[in-house]
Amino acid sequence: MTGEAHSPFIRKLSAFVVLSESELAVLARLHRRRRTFAAGQDMVHQGQSAQTAYILSAGWVCSYKIQPDGARQIVDFQVPGDFLGLRSVLLRTSDHSFEPIVDIEAVEVLAHDLLDAFAQTPRLATAILWAASRDEAMVVEHLVGIGRRDAGARMAHFLLELGSRLALVGMGSKKGFDCPLTQYHLADTLGLSAVHVNRVLRQLREHALVTFRNGRVSFHDYEGLVKLAEFDPAYLDQAGPLLK
Amino acid sequence: MTGEAHSPFIRKLSAFVVLSESELAVLARLHRRRRTFAAGQDMVHQGQSAQTAYILSAGWVCSYKIQPDGARQIVDFQVPGDFLGLRSVLLRTSDHSFEPIVDIEAVEVLAHDLLDAFAQTPRLATAILWAASRDEAMVVEHLVGIGRRDAGARMAHFLLELGSRLALVGMGSKKGFDCPLTQYHLADTLGLSAVHVNRVLRQLREHALVTFRNGRVSFHDYEGLVKLAEFDPAYLDQAGPLLK
C-alpha cells in the first residue's frame, strides 16, 4: 500500500467500496500527474474540449457557468477527494468552468487512464459512478433549494452539506469546518444578493445556530440547523461501504 | 445481434461508443426483466432503498422531490433510452420519486447485473458513466435555468432540450415532437405557476416560435427559439461516438 491510499479521493471512494490491494495500486497509478494551480487561475473553460479531468488533493474549487448576459451561477464547490471535470472528459466539451478559490493541488487524469483503470478493476468503475451519482444528487438538492427553499433554509442546507462532505475526508465535524468562501460565492451559489446573504447569516448567528466568520463555519446548534434546513443527508450516502 | 440492439437505450449509448457484437450481447442480457407500469403509479419512493434501477423502453416518466412542506419540484423527465434510478442503485437510498406520465415499459436492472456487465465490458461502464454525466449536465442546465433565465427563455430552453433528447432516439426533430406533459408538469419543472406557464406559452405562440397544443410541441421557428433560449446543445454531447 502506498501513501496515496490515504488520499482524500481514496478515503471518499472507501465510503462506497472496500478497496483491495490491487485496486489501491490501480488508484495509486492514477495519481501520477500532480499539478498545482494558483487561486483565481481558471482550470477548464466553459466550451473548451480538453479531455482532462482532475482529482482535487488539497484546496477548494468552485465550478460555475457564465450566462450569455454575464450572470454567474455557481453550480457546486469541490473539496479534497472530488473529481473536477469528470463530465468534461466524457462529454467532450466542458459545460462549465472551474476556478480555484485558494491555491490547490490536483492530479490530472486523462480519459484513457480512466478507461485503463476501469478495464483493470470494474469495481472501480462502479465506485466512480457512485461518486458521479453523488455529485448529481448534490446538484439536484441545489436545484430543489433554489426552486423551493427559503433563503434561511437554503443557506442552512448548504452549510450542513459542506460540513458532511468535509467530514467524509476528515476535514469537518458537527462542530464546524474551515471555509475559504466569500459572501459573493454564497450569493452566486444560492441565487441571493450579497446583502441578502449577509442578512441571512446574521439571522442564523442571532438564533445561535451557526456562525460563519474569519474563514470558519462554527455550528452552535447542529440539530437545530438540521431541523431548520430539513436536512436529510441520505443523498450523500456516507453510511459506510456497500461493496465489501 | 438481437432486437434489443435497436432499443432506445442502445441507440443512445451508440452516440457515445461504437458497440461491438459482444458488448451488444452483454446489453441484450441486461434487457431480460421487462416490466410495465401504469400512468400515475409511483415506481420508486423517495427514501426507499430498493437497489433496483430501470431502463425506460417506452413512455415518459417524471422524477421529482416532495419537500417536507408538500411542494413538488420536478427534477427531470425520462424519455425512452434513459435510466430511471441509477442513482438509487448506487446511493442505496432513493433521493427522489418516479411517476410514469403515461403507461410505460421498462427493463429492471439490479445492482449486480450492472457490476457483472461492467466486469465483462469496461467500455460499457464508461458509456453508462457518460449517460450519467449527461443526466447531471441536464440537471445543471436546469439549475442555471431556474437561477438565471427569465420565464420565456427557461421554457424555450426546456422544449429545445426535450426535442434534442428525443431526436437522439428517433422520436423528435426540428419540426417538433409528441409530448404528454401537462401545464402542471411544466410549472413544477420550471418553478412557475400554471397561470404563468399558460401566459409564457401564449407569448411564444404569438411570436410564431413554438406551439404546444393537443399533445404536440411544434417548432415554427427553431433558430429563433434557439436564439431566445441561448440554447447551446453541446452539453447533450450528441455529435457522434467518441469511442470508436
From TrEMBL, chains A, B:
Domain Cyclic nucleotide-binding: 15-90
Keyword field: DNA-binding, Transcription, Transcription regulation
InterPro entries, alphabetized: cNMP-bd_dom, cNMP-bd_dom_sf, HTH_CRP, RmlC-like_jellyroll, WH-like_DNA-bd_sf, WH_DNA-bd_sf
Keyword Flavoprotein carried by entry: no
HTH crp-type domain ranges (all copies): 149-223
Any matching Pfam family: cNMP_binding
Protein name: Crp/Fnr family transcriptional regulator
Lineage of the organism: Bacteria, Pseudomonadati, Pseudomonadota, Alphaproteobacteria, Rhodobacterales
